[in-house]
Protein: Indole-3-acetate O-methyltransferase 1
Amino acid sequence: MAPKGHNVAVSNMKLERMLSMRGGKGEASYANNSQAQAQHARSMLHLLREALDGVQLELPEVPFVVVDLGCSCGGNTIYIVDVVIKHMIKRFEALGFEPPEFSAFFSDLPSNDFNTLFQLLPPLANYDGGISMEECLATDNHRPYFAAGVPGSFYRRLFPARSINVFYSAFSLHWLSQVPEGVLDKRSTAYNKGRVFIHGANESTAHAYRKQFQADLAGFLRARSVEMKRGGSMFLVCLGRTSVDPTDQGGAGLLFGTHFQDAWDDLVQESLISSEKRDSFNIPVYAPSLQDFKEVVEADGSFAIKKLEVFRGGSPLIVSQPDDSAEVGRALANICQTVAGVLVDAHIGGRLSEELFLRVERRATSHAKELIEQLQFFHIVASLSFA
Structure:
């Protein structure tokens, strides 16, 4: 039998190959369950535009390059890239410059549903037909940029040195590169017995999660410090928390540490899975505090913080009838399945996964009123440029 640590390492390697938001266009797909992200991103556009105003403009013959890291597979990424490029075109034109050609890279892990994403892309504007950038922008159904997909983990290098003007990443950096060391190891003090998430865990587990987040963010910053052009800008948004205590994960805790957690316990109590099977699963998500985030940026030293704040995003539950308990329950189960379904399927198989999310839905339905009142997401918003 392989030693326990060996199994963990294999599953962490697999994590990068399989982690993705639910693809396709079904009920629990990311494309159909990312309206909250769209609303939260739109509410931060003024902060994004502020960051873009700090980007240095280059000669028009040099292509301007924008990257969305953790783009996923819905329309949100296309909307944001459009906002960035249109804002930059206006900046060039305000100075009397001919705008350059634009390039957009959509990047995510290899298992991301790039097919669905690229089907959503508007056709490229026909520059060859003598159409000007202004005419191209006037026809809203065409895009004024060349597009490409870049598969790979953003915790490592993805682009040539000094090649990117703007990095954008939203709702992705709270995903860790792996389940933290010791969390799944019975011999470790960080062993998260009986739980599938950091929320409500012990101090050692919390320390392991925090350490993993900081190591990952440091790797992310190291890679971007090589890839970003001088005068470029980086705009980052991830789930955050307002509590000093890392075991109080706020909205993420309510999402994964309550009804989702209880649904796993239901499967154990009904003898559908063993307690060992439950204990060998943990959600690799960490909602940092401002302090957690700031410490890493300052220790890295490559970037100056232009803005760093906690932003109240609002509820991830987008429902037409907040009084309809069944709709609320289904919405919460869909969100959980959208973001964690791929991991659950891989751990217990599709049939038991369906059973688990049915129980999430049932539990959320009976707690619908408090979910509507209490489930709020806070985001860390960071605008960084070279120090």
In short: DSSP finds 14 helices and seven strands in the chain.
